[in-house]
Amino acid sequence: xxxxxxxxxxxxxxxxxxxxxxxxxxxxxxxxxxxxxxxxxxxxxxxxxxxxxxxxxxxxxxxxxxxxxxxxxxxxxxxxxxxxxxxxxxxxxxxxxxxxxxxxxxxxxxxxxxxxxxxxxxxxxxxxxxxxxxxxxxxxxxxxxxxxxxxxxxxxxxxxxxxxxxxxxxxxxxxxxxxxxxxxxxxxxxxxxxxxxxxxxxxxxxxxxxxxxxxxxxxxxxxxxxxxxxxxxxxxxxxxxxxxxxxxxxxxxxxxxxxxxxxxxxxxxxxxxxxxxxxxxxxxxxxxxxxxxxxxxxxxxxxxxxxxxxxxxxxxxxxxxxxxxxxxx
Length: 329
Fold this sequence. Notes:
Nucleotidyltransferase, domain 5; alpha/beta; 2 domains; 12 helices; 10 strands; five-stranded mixed sheet
């Protein structure tokens, strides 16, 4: 492929521990084509890079050239941590075999395109400022509450990456000292008390303590079937144990999001992820809790919004990164 700096399309990829997605995205955020494959991180980063290049070639961006021109480049949104300049991973928990390695050189050589890479949550925040209802925002924070809790920060129109690319680890701010820890041992952190695994862990602890709960019946008395989704469904049905677990998570979310409002004073704090979706019927309570833990000027308008970009937010952020590097900010 040849790069076309004045083209109207970019190649976008989203890499997680389970799946890799690739798409062709226009400058106004329309996804023209897409496909997905398993990541298989244990096969090594070189194998993954070549499989991703094969995936990109299979979606055939030439089909869009008649209208949109050649791709301006490739942007990659990935779980980290990593150095966004070099693409070198730094002890990534879900891509462990890729530590101290980068797929940028292989992809650039295979595809003949400039390749740019960034942390998934940071690029999600960037996508919100380029393609979402907060388009043009200069100060925005994005938080995903799902398997983990991650964040992306836009300050004065720029992506905040920190001295080594690790900025945005909002999941590890302390929200309830002495409560549950996350899987890396941060005491009472946002992720350890509000993520999907945290909700599951809290429910199992109550089951193990002998508390009567519909969760156990719904799970068929099988620990493997206890999920955060099941717990939130049981809470919606009024099960007292599930309600207590859900309310604990809501309090953690309120403290976490309120703290981020106080620190960054963003135009918008955008929230996504599976737990966010699971709490849709309790969102008024989430916002009320955020207000209790934020400064007075956020009481009337806390500026907290659920993303409208859905699961495409990372792909759109990756495309936006490619367009920005091509001079199409």
